[in-house]
Amino acid sequence: MLGIIGAMDVEVNSIKSELENVEIKNIAAMDFYKGTLAGKEVVVVKCGVGKVNAAICAQILVSVFGVSALVNTGVAGSLNNDINICDIVVSTSALEHDMDVTALGYAKGVIPDMDQSEFKADENLIKLAKDSAEEAGLDVKIFEGKVVSGDRFIGTHEAKVYLRDTFNGDCAEMEGASIAHTAYLNKTPYVVIRAISDKADGGAQMDYPTFEAKAAENSIKLINCMIKNY
């Protein structure tokens, strides 16, 4: 059973509307929609914005609902000049870019006392996502890449260059790496799928509201195919 997490209504509402035999559980102020889509059991939830909300949500999906895999869907800002608005990034790994314990001698992004801080996505889920994108017939490019997450909207050229140069990130958002972190600790497969809503630079604040809905729509089409093929 897949657990599908989106931060905002626009990222999950259309998936929830297609579910059958729906049961809703409210836990930690989040509504978890458990139902079937194309005969497959799934739990869909809006976690809210930010790493803490996302991590709590992911843990509930694992501990309460016993999902077999976690999928994070939504939008992101591009850090890679080859990845344009409405293109889709399927995560190869995810890292928390705002983890900074350099004062104690750690490199930026390193989480103390953990054996890794960059969490690799599940190869089977990556393949499923890419195959599902092809099946969905999306008129955009599909990239594999590194997702970097932090509790900060990236909207300046300087911030974009920093994340690209420091972490080699391909897109930036605010939840994926904390879901990956939770998945790693629970030995649960995960993948992050992000459609690009802006270029994470000086025009991001203008691009984001313009392209958010279209980008989310592409991501949702891909997710629907993933559920059917899982």
TrEMBL record:
<keyword id="KW-0028">Amino-acid biosynthesis</keyword>
<dbReference type="GO" id="GO:0008782">
    <property type="term" value="F:adenosylhomocysteine nucleosidase activity"/>
</dbReference>
<dbReference type="Pfam" id="PF01048">
    <property type="entry name" value="PNP_UDP_1"/>
</dbReference>
<dbReference type="GO" id="GO:0019509">
    <property type="term" value="P:L-methionine salvage from methylthioadenosine"/>
</dbReference>
<keyword id="KW-0326">Glycosidase</keyword>
<protein>
    <recommendedName>
        <fullName>adenosylhomocysteine nucleosidase</fullName>
        <ecNumber>3.2.2.9</ecNumber>
    </recommendedName>
</protein>
<dbReference type="InterPro" id="IPR000845">
    <property type="entry name" value="Nucleoside_phosphorylase_d"/>
</dbReference>
<keyword id="KW-0486">Methionine biosynthesis</keyword>
<dbReference type="GO" id="GO:0005829">
    <property type="term" value="C:cytosol"/>
</dbReference>
<comment type="pathway">
    <text>Amino-acid biosynthesis; L-methionine biosynthesis via salvage pathway; S-methyl-5-thio-alpha-D-ribose 1-phosphate from S-methyl-5'-thioadenosine (hydrolase route): step 1/2.</text>
</comment>
<dbReference type="InterPro" id="IPR035994">
    <property type="entry name" value="Nucleoside_phosphorylase_sf"/>
</dbReference>
<keyword id="KW-0378">Hydrolase</keyword>
<dbReference type="InterPro" id="IPR010049">
    <property type="entry name" value="MTA_SAH_Nsdase"/>
</dbReference>
<feature type="domain" description="Nucleoside phosphorylase">
    <location>
        <begin position="2"/>
        <end position="224"/>
    </location>
</feature>
<dbReference type="GO" id="GO:0009164">
    <property type="term" value="P:nucleoside catabolic process"/>
</dbReference>
<dbReference type="GO" id="GO:0008930">
    <property type="term" value="F:methylthioadenosine nucleosidase activity"/>
</dbReference>
<dbReference type="GO" id="GO:0019284">
    <property type="term" value="P:L-methionine salvage from S-adenosylmethionine"/>
</dbReference>
